[in-house]
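Notebook B, p. 112. Complex prediction, attempt 2.
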Amino acid sequence: MVNIAVLGYGTVGSGVVEVINTNHDTVNSNAGVEINIKYVLDLRDFPGDPVEKILVHDYESILNDDSVDIVVEVMGGLEPAFTFVSKALSKGKSVCSSNKELVANKGPELLKIARDNNANFLFEASCGGGIPIIRPLNSSLTADDIMEISGILNGTTNYILTKMSDEGWDFEKALKKAQECGYAERNPEADIEGYDACRKIAILSSIAYGKTLNYEDIYTEGIKEITTDDIDYAKKLGYAIKLVASSERSGKDIYAKVCPMMVGRDNPLFFVNDVFNGIFVKGNMLGDAMFYGSGAGKLPTASAVVGDVVEAAKNIGKTIPVRWGEGKLELSERGSEEGRFFVRAKGAGEAKKAEINKLFGQVEFVNAGKDLETAFVTERMTEKDFEASYERLEDKITRIVIKS
Amino acid sequence: MVNIAVLGYGTVGSGVVEVINTNHDTVNSNAGVEINIKYVLDLRDFPGDPVEKILVHDYESILNDDSVDIVVEVMGGLEPAFTFVSKALSKGKSVCSSNKELVANKGPELLKIARDNNANFLFEASCGGGIPIIRPLNSSLTADDIMEISGILNGTTNYILTKMSDEGWDFEKALKKAQECGYAERNPEADIEGYDACRKIAILSSIAYGKTLNYEDIYTEGIKEITTDDIDYAKKLGYAIKLVASSERSGKDIYAKVCPMMVGRDNPLFFVNDVFNGIFVKGNMLGDAMFYGSGAGKLPTASAVVGDVVEAAKNIGKTIPVRWGEGKLELSERGSEEGRFFVRAKGAGEAKKAEINKLFGQVEFVNAGKDLETAFVTERMTEKDFEASYERLEDKITRIVIKS
């Protein structure tokens, strides 16, 4: 029997209990051992709830119980999660966490404590909810140099952009609906400003490239500025607008960014709609692959956490190798990255087109039936050159990166 | 250092050598040990080829070399592959195979020999080429009862159906193009009759449900009968026609089949086009997930094989647990499965519609501008009831399952 303790009895924590109870035969058979929930830690009481009898308020009782092999951290936030997790690992207990904040900030440190104590720090649920992506990167795509990871990693913003496109809703209405459906928090800033996706691509990139990518180094732009006009242009061009979190190698350079991008049909992310997430991976041998599924939600997220518990139970006393090694991943200077860009500016007619051609060289003009404005797509150029020209463009409205 | 021997220097075998040589730093770092190709076995000689020095024609020299830890079997076919693989496993050497014929026919037997000798029999590349699906099923989706696996598992037929839909080519022309592009064999029967997809879904189902699904038990129908008229109707209905290999639980029943299906936009397989493969998995907790990528090709397939080599190298002397257990998976009687069906018949007008309504009850008639025929979609009914009515329908042309 393997005893586990669940820290936090919120949405994901109660999901973990539900998954283990509902699927106990499958979970135990896959683990090769019985998984027993010995403790649930929460500050609150849950009178009448089945976990009432195993509920504790004091972490020390879990930490000092040597029969607890695995700690499930689903509290979220940096503290006290970090203190709890590092103490558990130091005692040789494995930890399974869904906490992207914790992993993005303290991943390498916690992985090291795990290694030093023959334990495991696993965090499949921190990126892409229920989608298996972290274990596949660590254990399946091991023959490849990863050239790119690009993900639709935030379900709320993908729901908003999908509804703006399919229903013609504006951003405010789509956000309101997302909140009514329970997808978006009352304070949705972390989602719509791209901060959530940014932490997730930092984690995935650190695994893929083997060194820590600091999320604060990643250029991040949200979707608040996207309008239905932008979406009309995207459709005209055969693109969808998605919030893409991306990191990419180009020769010796590595670039990373989070921003709205126009994505074409030749990229499988084009087809990732509503609250679903998708993670595109390009390997130098594998070519293109994508992992698709529910990026959030109580049971999908809990499914990933319990998958980690099974893996930890199969590897008691033995650290599973991970790609995320020591050192810091240095991103290349942002402006040197090449791409194509979609631009809108006020003003129409030949004079406007002449101004644009003078600034950007040859471009593809796009007509989506909007009066008194001109829109176009540039040829391939460095971001630095593009931004310099865009800066000088009169009456500019907006610009959006075209996903290559 | 871990020594490996590659059996077969054909497309995949030379790909394996190329992946290990090109990505040696990454491969060795992920394996935590240097992977050394000590032998390549082939009946042919390759004068001037870099493998010339390590080429052997006699398997016994590999088998009897105790320094060989891992054997890569990429010869294909049942014999001598089965003899070679079982002998290697019996000696405690792990085997990584891309051979779906071998796995579908001898999987449980070889897994048992591996277990009995503390070795591993790994076969990620046998299904879905480079797409990680077997290890995710064994090591990631372990918290779920798998309710369904449905895959587009054959790139050749998917290319043909995509071109018939996008370019309006008929089956013969699309097949010819597939052969010209090197996707289809000169004898394409295994692909277009669905035999290839059938073996792959048998393997995936055996892992997902934990018992051996004999591929001979799976109802299998190919795509030769699909016409551009069928595709016109599918488009009219908002569907795409795909060769889907599927197994599904419904209560205590398990059904499996391989046949052309009409797939809607709400299923991510809808978007899997050209030679790409996609594998849809539904878990009772996870919900819907999909794994997408290159289902064939030298380097993607070799990437999966080398990923297995890395995993085997990390687990020398220790058998990695798999879900595929003892026993035979009994499928439920085919006719009891429920679904909706698309049907075309010659004849038009009210009398024809009356005949159809009398046989099938309420249906949705479909008009795709074809003269002198009537097409419709049934309500949900058992396959047995459907087949009984279809049998009695006058001047029937064809019927296609609608993917639920």
